[in-house]
Amino acid sequence: MTPVAISLEVNGERVEAQVLPRLNLADFLREHLKLTGTHVGCEHGVCGACTVRVNGEIVRSCLILAVQAQEKSVETIEGLSDSGEISDLQGAFRDRNALQCGFCTPGMLMAAQDLLKQTPEPDREQIREHLSGNYCRCTGYQAIIDAVATTARLRAGRAP
Amino acid sequence: MKASAFAYARPTSVINALELLAAYGDRAKVLSGGQSLMPAMNLRLISPEFIVDIGELTELRGIVVKGDVLIIGALTRHVDILKSLEIATHAPLLRDATSHVAHPAIRNRGTLGGSLAHADPASELPACMLALGATIIVFGPGGERRIRAEEFFTGIYETALSPQELLVAVELPLARKNSAHFFHEFARRHGDYAIVGLAAQSIVVAGQFADLRLGFFAVGDRPLLTGVAGKLVNVPVTPEALAKASAVLGEELHPQEDQQATPAMRRHLAKVLLSRCVSTLLFRPDLQSGIPA
Amino acid sequence: MTRTPENSNGLSVLDRPNSYIGKTVPRPNLDRLMQGRGLYVSDIELPRMAHVVFLRSPHAHARINGIDVSAAKRMSGVIAFVTGQELAAVITPWVGVLSHLKGLKSAPQSAIAIDRVCWQGEAVAAVVATSRAAAEDAAEHVSVAYEELDAVTDMRTALDPATSVIHPLLGDNLAFERNHDAGAVDDAFAASDEVVEAEFIFGRHTGVTLEPRSVVADWNAAEARLTIYQGTQAPHMVQNIAALHLGLQESQVRVVCKDVGGSFGIKVHIYADEMATYALSKLLRRPVKFVADRVESFNTDIHARDHRCKGKIGVKRDGTITAFEIDDLTGIGPYSMYPRTSAIEANQVVNLVGGPYMTLNYRARARVVFQNKNVMCQYRAVGHPIACSVTEGLVDLAAMKIAMDPVEIRRRNLIADDAYPCASPSGLRFEQLSHHAALAKLIKMMDYDALRAEQTALRARNIHRGIGIASFIEVTNPSAAFYGVGGAKISSQDGVAVRLDAQGAVICQTSITEQGQGSESLTAQIVGSVLGVSMDRVRVILGDTDNTPYGGGTWASRGAGIGGEAALQAAKVLRRNILDVAAAILQSTSGELDIVDNSVVNAGDGASRIELNELARIVYFRPDTLPPGIQPELMATRHFVPRGYPFAFTNGVQASWLEVDTDTGFVKLLKHWVVEDCGTIINPQLVDEQIRGGVVQGLGAALFERCVYDERGQLTNANMADYLVPMSGEMPDIDVGHVVSPTLESELGAKGAGEAGTAGAAAAVTNAVNDALSPFGTIITEIPLTPQIILTALGRI
Predict the structure, then answer these.
(1) Contact A42/C720, CB-based, under 8 Å?
(2) Distances (CA, A) of C9 to B272, C16, C596
(3) pLDDT category, C641, cuts 50, 70, 90?
(4) A 87-106: CB under 8 A from C
(5) Under a CB-based contact definition with an 8 Å cutoff, are residues C742 and C749 in contact?
(6) pTM to 2 decimal places
(7) N or C, fewer C-beta in 10 Å, chain C?
């Protein structure tokens, strides 16, 4: 099978690579770029552990081929962390212990940030709904909802 | 699981895509959003030799009103439908239904065309096409075909599309005066496939249905535009009339048995949906529990 | 054992100034996980690392008549194909029995099946390649000649003479049977005003850890050392077993656990495919990585809780429960799991039924039978959910029979809070529980009377809400009574080594392990508090058999109680040693000094005398300035093992408030409460979060989760779309409260809390559903409570 040349942006850096068409974006990020913060939990698009941003929108990287990311801008948890974009959300997660084993956390943070960008003051119901595609086995979700709600209030300039 | 190897092509035009499909036929699969194709490939349920990625065919995007129809390009993503003013105005049923499709990350990639071509009997959008009286626009070696929604879905993951054809758009009549819609599905969790669902479009005048189209899904091997709707049009809808219609619906449906529900369960839930739909559309809370105890 | 005052103020170690114990502090080192910079096993890459994919049986029971790899051999990226026979030269088989489970029998299990496969999903060959994808491609071209055999797939008929015996040498399909008879059960039933019976059916569950099981095994032939990177809860156990079966000394095996993406007991067991991976590395003389995919996980991660339990309760009109009786049947896989055995769950059920209650009349039979389905073993709250659902379901049935409020019947029968120490009719010894205090607190927290009033008002409008209560006891801090006495090389003690480094910071090495519950944090909190050092100066090393004391690890809710006590004692010794040196330097006595905020201070007026970093500098670099004869020791190790009680029992009570749509059978969980007593709480937020996470696993059991096998032994829902795990949209908020009854077994007084949530949640939900539907006269004693089951019970379909 012939590799295909791709050129894309990952966390603001230009990346050129030769990949087999069958390679999905999650594996490309993890194995080729060693960005292992994006996790693989099911490979059928149900658990949300592989959530990344492509052209600013959250997607399941296990359901995208690396070749489909040609000329796109991909952002992973490492990028969102380094830019400081979610440092307040991460602080809220830390304070509220909204993570235990941490495996769902990158995807959860991606989805939470996606919600907060679209809906600045979501209620708990809305938070639960937006995160309803991200599986967590450790926390039971409540702490995550709390942390997202706290961040929303802080961003809106209210008391946490 | 890792997908099997395949050859990959990304056509730059619809003509180009059709050439590839003509060449490969059923050895190829069309990749649009990939939200149904990729899981199947990752699970090695299917191993196509060729993938034709139509993701860059911008001519297949867009939602536009043309005269008295709304034209939605096949590559319109679920998220685009949710955000579209045209859809909210002219086909709000579609917006409501789409909000039940999976989760935000899936909706950012999944497409209307992909969903319709995939034809999962438990999915929301095929039933909407029935309820809205849609026409599916298809291009192929023989040129354009216009297929009524009622004739498009032919079985589990089966449609009227031939392997050489591409679904390019759907046309919906614009919502008329006094239109009202209803959408509900019973699913165990947010975003799950429905156990039973109903997409309904109606015209209500003076407390009666002047028109009613009931598109049930997850009730068999394809979505069903049920004939029982006719029993409720242009008649006063009394509790008795609804109960009778409920019985007719039970006869019309031949639901499948699976891990989620037995046929009896699906028939029952369909009847619950029917009464909730009718009760909501007619503002008749007295019809809420139309099912005999 | 009493608390010893540590200084002239008469304060115990728990009351020290600036103590972190009892404080909600954020866990250290979370940034790593939140930035995607953790190190999970699947992230590990080593030079020349190969990937293994296991070819797995599509049949529940079949003879292997031949494996043909000729087509697959030529495929690109293939390194080796290895059969069970070939691997047997490198790794020996095992049998999952323990001597204290009398009569438990099981057959030898090989790392890869030889001659016969016994469950759909069992590995029949290993395909090793340069990538997972290449190995999967090659695996598709391996052809195996199977001869299907009869499969035992119904536990109810597993013991029938007509049913084939899976292991003929064992004689029958009975793995284990336990009978227990205490008090005078028949007399008690005869003297009862009402006797109620029900059969309780439980769905088979699995853990669904988000990170699948993953191993990187690295045999370095030149060093003759095997390094195993694995997310195990019990690294020393893995070390022991890997060494034993590979013919190595334990000192030749190192087990390293870094970040683990969830375990809950799933990753505390010994799996054939993981053992095969260790053996493959040794055979191929290079690192080998195995990462289960999600379908494999469903088919091979241990399952649990597949029980059918008949229960009977006797009650008097005044509410006195006279007796409990159960007959429990559980269908495991074809092998008892190694080394913890697949009989423990049933054994726990026998132990725990009726536990919170006063009645001494109890009879039980539990039978464990082999089936041709996936193996089954301990998963969070082992056996407790079964025992609690049966007990609390029976108590509610009794209450209904005599028209008594479910809270009232519990008030009349829960063991009194001042009755301790005492023992249960199954022989469990309780040090100090608080059932009544917990129940009273729960009733207040949930405003029980207001909910009852709301229920009544809504019923009139055909809206059906229900309240379900579930009391429970929980096994924590197990001694050797759990496994060690049966011959298992599973340590029931743990150790912590603490040292002051050259900059006056503290490094702890602990033998407990971390899977996200907060082991690192609790260790740092305890050490920081006892030593008087700020937490940001405490580094905790765990999960490495080369670099921690020998210990059991984290499981059975033992980390805080046992590992925490070891940390406390080690820190006490280090503190004394530091003060001895300080006294020598300052020409004082250790009794007049204390350590507060990283400094040695006067115990009396708190004035700072010498900072720890300065003391460390002197000790490490300028011992020539110390008084003659002094040999400073700035490192201390202490181990701890519970000696008094075989288990530190905790107790709690849960409540569920929910609504049932009687038209559709759908249940909406509105709210959940837990009041729990785990003794001394080190970090309230971490304990509460453990409880919440545990509750949600129980809610999943109550409504959603079930491994669905067909009659041919095929697991039909082995993916995350069809096996329904709880997601955020359907879960309620959970309020948690505590009563505190410290154990006197340790100075810390901490018992465990990790499994309490899971123990009682399903029972509370089932009781709530039955309460909601009581106007309809339905009683459902089966979980998961699917809409199908509810509508059927209501007679709607």
Answers:
(1) yes
(2) 71, 10, 14
(3) very high
(4) 90, 93-97, 99-106
(5) yes
(6) 0.97
(7) N
The letter for the amino acid at B264 is: A
Q: Which residues pair with A16 in a beta bridge?
A: A7
Average pLDDT over residues C208-224: 98
**CA-wise closest residue to A43 among C767, C132, C778, B221:** C132
Is C463 in the A-facing interface, judged by CB distances under 8 Å?
Answer: no
Which residue blocks in chain B are alpha helix, DSSP H? Answer: 14-24, 37-42, 78-83, 85-90, 92-98, 104-107, 112-118, 124-131, 149-152, 239-252, 263-281
Coil/strand/helix, residue A55: coil
pLDDT tens for each residue of C273-309: 999 999 999 999 999 999 999 999 999 999 999 999 9
Cα separation of B139 and C44, whole Å? 48
CB contact under 8 A, C34 and A144: no
Peptide bond into C421 cis (omega under 30): yes
* CA nearest to A127 within chain B: B104
Residues A24, B43: contact at Cβ < 8 Å?
no
- Report whether B186 contacts B196 (CB < 8 A): yes
β C225-230/C253-256 pair status: parallel
Q: Classify residue A84 as exposed, middle or buried by CB count within 10 Å of its CB (0-12, 13-18, 19+).
A: exposed
pLDDT of residue C1: 35
Nearest residue in chain B measured CA to CA from A53: B105
Phi, psi of B224 (to 5 degrees): -130, 125
Question: Shortest Cα distance from A67 to chain B (angstroms)?
Answer: 9
Task: With CB atoms and an 8 Å threshold, state whether C663 touches B291.
Answer: yes
Token pair, residue A155, equals 């961003």
Nearest to A44 among C43, C515, C721 (CB): C721
Chain B residues in contact with A115 by the CB 8 A cut-off are 104
The alpha carbon of residue C265 is apart from the nearest alpha carbon of chain A, in Å, by 12
Give the number of residues written for chain C: 797
Q: How far is A32 from chain C (nearest CA, A)?
A: 12
| Three-class SS state of C467 | strand
Distance CA A76, CA A29 (A): 9
How many DSSP H helices and E strands does chain A contain? 6, 5
Neighbour-count burial of C383, counting CB atoms closer than 10 A to its CB (0-12 exposed, 13-18 middle, 19+ buried) = buried
The answer to whether the complex's ipTM is over 0.95 is yes
- Say how many C-beta atoms besides its own lie within 10 A of residue B42's C-beta: 23
User: Residue A46: is its pLDDT beyond 60?
Assistant: yes
In Å, how far are A139, C343, C357, C702, C726 from C675, measured between CA atoms? 18, 30, 17, 19, 22
- What SS3 string covers C479-521? CCCCCHHHCCCCCCCEEEEEEECCCCCEEEEECCCCCCCCHHH
Q: Which amino acid is at C64?
A: I
Which chain A residue lies closest to C698 (C-alpha atoms)? Answer: A140
Q: Tell me the two tokens of residue A135.
A: 């599986």
Under an 8 A CB cutoff, do B2 and A27 touch? Answer: yes
For chain B, the farthest-separated pair of C-alpha atoms sits apart, in whole angstroms, at 60
Instruction: Give chain B positions within 8 Å (CB) of A114.
Output: 104
A133 near B CB under 8 A: yes
List average pLDDT for each run of 10 residues in chain B, which is 293 residues long: 97 96 95 97 97 96 96 98 97 97 97 98 97 98 96 97 96 95 97 97 97 98 96 96 96 93 97 97 86 45
Closest residue to C663, CB basis, from B5, B264, B272: B272
Amino acid at C33: L
Closest-CA residue in chain B for C666?
B188
Give the tens place of pLDDT for each residue, C71-99: 999 999 999 999 999 999 999 999 999 99
